[in-house]
Amino acid sequence: MMVAERITQVVSRFKAQADWEDRYKELIQIGKHLALYPEEQRQEKFKVKGCQSQVWLYPEFKEGRVFFHADSDAILVKGIMGLLVEVYSGLKPQEILDTPADFLKEIGITEHLSMNRSNGLASMLKQIQMYALVYKSLGEKL
């Protein structure tokens, strides 16, 4: 599925929710359905710095695409990570770099987070972009 289609599905799903309480519930459900995080990757080097809660983001590079595995000890943050994984996982590095997270603003998440959660979200997005940049660089050398 193309990244634009993924974003359209995410936006539609959240806009279908009646209010922010329902959108939070949707985020929590996304977190509950996030694939199990590999325990052996629950390492300090995969922790996202700048998050109030503990957040792990482990990348894999297979066949020219970046696949993300994520987890958090906070259910809402886990849902946000699930949403980011849903949009960005399985894309080519350049696709990740070319896809701004404007959809988060469109569905209203950014304006409904505390300052600490907003800073954490920025750190998560920065980490995703950083992994994409590294894998793009490595891919060009292969």
What does it look like?
With 142 residues, this protein is mostly helical. It has one domain: Sufe protein. Chain: A. A two-stranded antiparallel sheet has the order 1-2. Helix 2 crosses helix 3. It is globular, with a radius of gyration of 15 Å. It starts with a helix and ends with a helix. 30% of the residues are buried. The mean pLDDT is 92.
What is the assembly state of the chains in this entry?
single chain
| Order of secondary-structure elements | HHEEHHHH
How many angstroms does the end-to-end distance come to?
Answer: 26 Å
CATH class: Alpha Beta
Tell me the helix content.
40-55%
- Helical stretch tally: 6
Which shape, going by the Cα principal axes?
A: globular
Give the number of DSSP strands: 2
User: What is the average of the pLDDT values?
Assistant: 92
Number of domains: 1
Runs in which pLDDT lies below 50 for 5 or more consecutive residues are none
Class inferred from helices and paired strands: mainly alpha
CATH topology group: Sufe protein. Chain: A
Beta-strand percentage? Answer: 5-15%
Numbering strands along the chain, what is their spatial order in the largest sheet? 1-2
Radius of gyration: 15 Å
Q: How can the largest sheet be summarized? A: 2 strands, antiparallel
**Name given to the CATH architecture:** Alpha-Beta Complex
